Amino acid sequence: MPNLLGLKTREEIALSEFEGFLKAEIILTEALTKRTRFNIAYILKIHRLALGHLYAFAGKYRDVNISKGGFPFAASRFLYQTVQEFEEEVLVKLPNKYESKKSLIHDIAVVHGELLVIHPFREGNGRTARILANLMSRKQGYEALEFGRVGEKKFELYVAAVQKSAEKDYRKMIAFISSIFPM
């Protein structure tokens, strides 16, 4: 993929992307407060912070249709409307403080599943969604989710959970997030 740094190999690009996402998560974690609101502007900021050094499209909605493994993501021509509905129906309803870990896990699962189904960016959707999930957890005083524990078998469950999220069935995603939620 063409990039602003002129990197040629997959390894160079992957390392630059990794460093960008790591830097973005550190910056956003340090700036996190009890009053931080997770909305579309914030999600665009995560993406821009992570990949702005590398891609001109960082922090901008994709303008192409994409799919993965035969699973089509939200159509690009309806992406702005889809994202606005996500913000109105899900993000604005997120409380600043959760009364229980169970309700936090539920909301992380819904946000995570919906964001992955929408897939608003050309690249970095999963990593952006994982950073957002970690920030939602940290805001409530918990550690980051343990995505590093996701092996091949759990990854298959993760993909199935994302696909069920497209049907607004979040049970599998809730179970998945519960399985990697910090103790």
Report on the architecture of this protein:
By secondary structure, the chain is mainly alpha-helical. The chain has seven helices and two strands, in the order H-H-E-E-H-H-H-H-H. It has helices at residues 10-31, 40-51, 79-89, 101-118, 125-139, 152-165, 171-180; strands at residues 67-68, 71-72. It has a two-stranded antiparallel ribbon with strand order 1-2. A hairpin with a 2-residue loop joins strand 1 (67-68) and strand 2 (71-72). The longest helix is centred in the N-terminal third of the chain and has 22 residues, at 10-31. It starts with 9 loop residues before the first helix and ends with a helix.
**CATH-assigned homologous superfamily:** Fido-like domain
Distance from first to last alpha carbon: 39 Å
- Any low-confidence stretches, pLDDT <50, length ≥5? none
> What is the CATH class name?
Mainly Alpha
Which structural category do the helix and sheet elements fall into? mainly alpha
Strand content: under 5%
Largest sheet: 2 strands, antiparallel
Global shape? globular
Average pLDDT metric? 96
Radius of gyration: 16 Å
Helical proportion, percent range: 55-70%
Count of individual beta strands: 2
Quickly count the domains.
1
Shape-level CATH architecture:
Orthogonal Bundle
Here the CATH topology equals Fic-like fold
What is the number of helical segments per DSSP (H or I, 4+ residues)? 7
Strand order of the largest sheet: 1-2
Helix-strand topology string: HHEEHHHHH
